[in-house]
Write a structure and sequence with these properties.
nine-stranded mixed beta sheet; GMP Synthetase, Chain A, domain 3; five-stranded parallel beta sheet; 26 strands; Rossmann fold; 533 residues
Length: 533
């Protein structure tokens, strides 16, 4: 054997384990099994892998190459999943964009990410064109998909033609496990979102944690109703199902009637919803009329599940085991999991670190704190982001000391269970969406007559947290709740707009002048109760 050597490239290719490889391998294991159901479309694993290959070939034929970025603004659909895996197959980075953002917010993401391809649902064509007009990106691909029957606009081609049209060869691109495959934009304390770089290694490590600690298997039949532009639905559930060989039922959105009908019709076994959607399901007037006996696994995240809702779920769906997934986009996104047996004994808790995660609590100097003491939650894990796109300073800050600093405050008990007690970054999680308080504050400061603003979340029976703004007008200026809400409507996506607005004379502050939001939250915690009377 002397003198015979394998080249590093051939060894790397044989050992490759990327996101796109997962689907290809599932198609070999389960070629005839149903992989994806979307309305009247049903794909076996072999068929879905084939359409992913067609999309990858089309993107390559349009001039996209490894490292290019394709932005996607769309509701849930089989095309969304196929484009995500198709882009990964040729090393193109997917940039999913929240379809509730306005043109200015989308324009920032297009410009910051350097996207040179844009694919949109037909219903978002107008806002997408507004964003493109504001930034003028050099797009190699501009394509439209959807079910509204709208014809492609000027310069836009139809994704529907990619499935039925010419078949293009797919190059065997050298994609390494730690090459970026996604840029996920997430809001923090900054007024602008950050681009979180995720690799195949991070995502697949997270898929394994979800599958093992989340009790998932190839026998699952799952409804995907929450937005796939989120890591939660896309990477805790849809992608894991494709990895394991489970069946995915895709819905456009979390309509309670449609979810319940789908569970009954498709004999669904598995469902993820944030607490707000579980509450909507339980409140459905015909909930008890549906046959939900097939449902055996339930998942929630984005916010703690109220204890009274947990008890109601146990009573009305006694066969369903529940898991709470806690994390953030930078963790791809899972960090800790609260198991079914701990739901009531640790209600409101975030559980213990997932399989591939190490979590601890530290003080302001980065030193580990003992059980029972509150500090910042930090993690070590292959789930973690490669860093923030084009932001080395923020990356260095977040990874200080060789741990990822979550920005959340928490406490771990003697048994290793985590409870999140506050958000160091003042993040508001409303209806499953992240809202940066500073972004809302800066938008409200643009209104003439506003002297000071504090934005925070208060408890709400449906939204879990409601965006709340307390305003101090400038001397001699009169501002009303209607003035402020109208101003917010013009500048913020709907879910970021304050549900409650309070006009007051002064904000509580400490001696150094910092606004005491904890006091404000306590002072105005009653708002949702008063408004519901």
């Amino acid at each position: 054997m002397r003198g015979i050597f394998a080249s590093p490239d051939t060894v790397a290719r044989a050992r490759r384990h990327t996101v796109s490889d997962l689907l290809h391998r599932s198609a070999q294991r389960y070629p005839g099994k149903t992989a994806v159901v979307d309305g009247d479309r049903r794909f076996t694993f072999a068929e879905f892998n084939q359409v992913v290959t067609r999309f990858a070939g089309t993107l390559h034929a349009r001039g996209l190459a490894k490292g290019d970025r394709v932005a996607l603004i769309a509701r849930n659909s089989w095309e969304f999943g196929a484009l995500a895996f198709g882009a990964a197959r040729i090393g193109v980075v997917l940039v999913p964009i929240n379809f509730m953002l306005n043109a200015d917010e989308i324009a920032f993401i297009l410009e910051h990410s350097g996207a040179n391809a844009l694919i949109v649902d037909d219903e978002f064509l107008a806002v997408a064109e507004g964003a493109v007009a504001a930034t003028g990106p050099d797009l190699k691909v501009a394509a439209i998909m959807g079910r509204g029957g709208a014809a492609p606009g000027l310069g836009w081609e139809s994704v529907a033609e990619w499935e039925a049209g010419e078949v293009y060869a797919v190059p065997d691109v050298a994609v390494a496990d730690d090459d970026p495959v996604r840029i996920m934009y997430t809001s923090g304390t900054e007024s602008r979102p950050k681009g979180v770089l995720l690799s195949s290694r991070a995502l697949i490590s997270q898929y394994v944690s979800c599958a093992i600690d989340g009790g998932m298997s190839h026998d699952d039949v799952e409804v995907h109703a929450l937005p796939m532009y989120h890591c939660a639905q896309m990477d805790c559930f849809f992608s894991v199902d494709l990895y394991l060989g489970a069946t995915s039922i895709i819905l456009r959105g979390p309509d309670p009637t449609q979810i319940l009908e789908t569970i009954q019709r498709e004999r669904v076994t598995k469902l993820f919803c944030p607490p707000t959607v579980w509450i909507s399901l339980l409140g459905h007037p015909r909930f008890d009329e549906y046959d939900l006996s097939s449902l055996s696994k339930g998942y929630y995240g984005a916010a703690p599940m109220p204890a009274e809702v947990l008890r109601e779920l146990n009573t009305r769906l006694p066969q369903v085991r529940l898991w709470n997934f806690y994390g953030q986009t930078e963790m791809s996104p899972i960090a800790t999991i609260l198991a079914p047996e701990d739901q009531l004994t640790h209600a409101g808790g975030a559980g213990r670190p997932a399989l591939n995660v190490e979590t601890r609590i530290v003080d302001d100097t980065g030193q580990a704190l003992p059980p029972g003491e509150v500090g910042e939650i930090v993690h070590r894990s292959p789930h973690l982001t490669l860093g923030y796109y084009n932001d080395p300073a923020k990356t260095a800050e977040s990874f200080a000391g060789g741990w990822f600093h979550s920005g959340d405050l928490g406490v771990i008990d003697e048994d290793g269970y985590l409870t999140v007690v506050d958000r160091k970054k003042d993040m508001i999680k409303t209806g499953g969406e992240n809202v940066a308080s500073r972004e809302v504050e800066e938008a409200l400061y643009l209104l003439d007559g506003v002297a000071e603003v504090a934005v925070f979340g208060v408890s709400h029976p449906y939204w879990i947290e409601a965006v709340t703004a307390v305003i101090v007008p400038k001397s001699g200026v009169t501002l009303t709740e209607d003035d402020l809400k109208a101003h917010a409507r013009d500048r913020l996506a709907g879910y970021k707009q304050p549900k409650y607005v309070v006009v007051t004379d002064a904000l509580p502050k400490n001696p150094s002048g910092k606004i005491l939001k904890r006091q404000l939250r306590e002072r105005y915690e009653h708002l949702s109760k008063e408004m519901s009377k």
